[in-house]
Amino acid sequence: MLTTQTHATPLGDLTLLSDDQALLGVWFSDQKYFGAGYDLTQARTGTTSPLEQAGKWLDRYFAGAAPSPADLPLRPEVTAFRASVLQVLRQVPYGTTITYQQIADQLDRKALTRKHAARAVGGAVGHNPLSIVIPCHRVVGSDGSLTGYAGGLDRKVALLQLEGVVL
């Protein structure tokens, strides 16, 4: 059974989605790709252990702590390619950034090939169903520019500033 919960943050309310075992989604209500294809009208409103853990994780994050995505049971339901991109994002340390090209290069090294384009990585980053928890806001352009963020560029700036990234 899917369960949703709303969690208040300084940047607006987040909708959290889980089943009984794992966190499946974290979205700002006005962000692109809200719901990631789930029919949220079919989910019950309530709480689960993963939702409780996520709420505490988010509170620590917005208080300026650096909780790890590994602290939560996560199960993003995405394609194999998107899962590989999200795995790279999970390793980006708090307070640092990475470029789309650097992600593509890491994937290429693992696959021993030159097939991953930064543009494809951008699509995968943009469709991250676990905003903030899997830190897609830490991805910047090759020149350091702040490129798109499904939750909005103002929120991306605020998240990076919270983490102490100098813009």
Automatic annotation (TrEMBL):
The keyword Methyltransferase applies. One of its GO terms (biological process) is methylation. It is an enzyme of class 2 (transferase). The active site is at 136 (nucleophile). Residues 81-165 form the Methylated-DNA-[protein]-cysteine S-methyltransferase DNA binding domain. Keywords: Cytoplasm, DNA damage, DNA repair, Methyltransferase, Transferase. It catalyses: a 6-O-methyl-2'-deoxyguanosine in DNA + L-cysteinyl-[protein] = S-methyl-L-cysteinyl-[protein] + a 2'-deoxyguanosine in DNA; a 4-O-methyl-thymidine in DNA + L-cysteinyl-[protein] = a thymidine in DNA + S-methyl-L-cysteinyl-[protein]. Its EC number is 2.1.1.63. NCBIfam families: ogt. Belongs to the MGMT family. Involved in the cellular defense against the biological effects of O6-methylguanine (O6-MeG) and O4-methylthymine (O4-MeT) in DNA. Repairs the methylated nucleobase in DNA by stoichiometrically transferring the methyl group to a cysteine residue in the enzyme. This is a suicide reaction: the enzyme is irreversibly inactivated. HAMAP family: OGT (MF_00772). This is Methylated-DNA--protein-cysteine methyltransferase.
